[in-house]
Write a structure and sequence with these properties.
5 helices, mainly alpha, two-stranded antiparallel ribbon, two-stranded antiparallel sheet, 50% helix, globular
Length: 163
């Protein structure tokens, strides 16, 4: 499973969608991976707290109809992304994680910024959305999120999110 020690102090389940800390860690990690995989023109859909990617080319039903049916909009997308980053910050500040899990989560946050940049390109004509996404990226960078410097010359496996 996870190498997460349950830590119930300072955890308000109403603010964290009723998840216990281990569940919150899992959902947040999965959502960060999904956001990192976004491409230009993709849209995020959220069902039961988990992100999925909607691509215009993968369905015969127009994407606008699907988004209307599932009550998804730019506003709900932005709110869900903000919640994801808030949860990641809460996890880093309040959960007792192993060093390996902390490093994983920080890498997932950093990788998610690439997907956010592509989402900004998707919504380039909506300056409010682009500005809000920019703020979220800048709020999830800094001392709390910094990765240790890696030795030069080390090969990186781009397809493994955890190493």
């Amino acid at each position: 499973m996870f190498s997460v020690t349950r830590h119930d102090t300072d955890f308000d389940s109403s603010d964290k969608s009723g998840h216990d800390p281990e569940e919150l860690f899992h959902v947040t990690s999965v959502n960060l991976i999904v956001v990192a995989r976004l491409q230009v023109e993709d849209h995020l859909c959220v069902t039961k707290g988990m992100f999925t990617i909607q691509r215009p080319s993968t369905t015969w039903v127009p994407l606008s109809v699907l988004r209307w049916y599932y009550a998804q909009s730019r506003e709900t997308t932005i709110a869900n992304i903000k919640t994801m980053y808030d949860n990641a910050t809460w996890i880093l500040k309040h959960m007792e994680l192993t060093d390996k899990d902390i490093l994983r989560l920080k890498k997932l946050i950093k990788n998610s910024h690439k997907g956010i940049r592509k989402l900004q390109t998707t919504y380039i004509k909506d300056i409010n959305v682009v500005a809000r996404l920019t703020t979220m990226v800048s709020n999830s960078t800094g001392d709390l999120y910094d990765l240790p410097s890696s030795p030069k010359g080390k090969k990186v496996n781009r397809h493994n999110y955890f190493e």
